[in-house]
Design goal:
The complex is a heterodimer of chains A (159) and B (69). Chain A contains six helices and no strands. With 159 residues, chain A is an all-alpha fold. The two termini of chain A are 25 Å apart. Chain B is mainly α. Chain B has five helices and two strands. Chain B has a two-stranded antiparallel ribbon with strand order 1-2. The longest helix of chain B has 11 residues. At the A-B interface, helix 4 and helix 5 of A face helix 3 of B.
Amino acid sequence: MRGIFCQTTATTNEEYKKELKSKNLWMVLLILLGAAIAVAAYLADAKGTLEIPSYMLGVYCGMGTGIAAAGVILLVKNLRLLGNEEKLKASRLENYDERNKEIKGKAVMAAVKVMLISCLVTALIAGIYYPYLIKVLLFILYVFLFSYLIAYSYYKRKM
Amino acid sequence: MQTKIAEFRKAGKVTQEELADAVNVTRQTIISLENGKYKASLVLAHKIAQFFGVSIEEMFVFDKEEENL
């Protein structure tokens, strides 16, 4: 996931610090989002206001807690980097380095191919038993293709 | 593509770490460039050549057959 979310264009520690500080705001939003999901699921479960299986409420609760925990971990990591010039530089080089960017790009491409094939195969096989599943997975594939086309035309004009 | 980074580096008594710092990459990238496992971008090639005060052609040797030139 670092290949998707952690790339940087900062060539100096000062620029990288600014980037990390703005990322920290997103981390706070991530924590709030995760906490909101977890609290909403917990309250719905406690009050029994929603007709959702308790298993799914547990999933929502766990998902919210997981998102909030990830936000806290990343926030703490960023704050520690901001307080240590050497580690900050190492992190900047790690995320700025062109070879690392190429490796991450290739890894993302490979993962996308595997995900697309898995979605298609799952939709075709599991769709026999759960017809609704084929609609969901095909919807995800259409979203992917549509967003790819938009991104492609954007970068084609930009480059 | 072959590079003469290691030769220039040793002649100038520059460590991989120092070169990496100067051109804003990791030491592993310098190692991969020296081993021929990774091809530098034009910007990085320019930075490395500039660091040693030589031209890109002097630093990087293009294999015409491999590069289809």
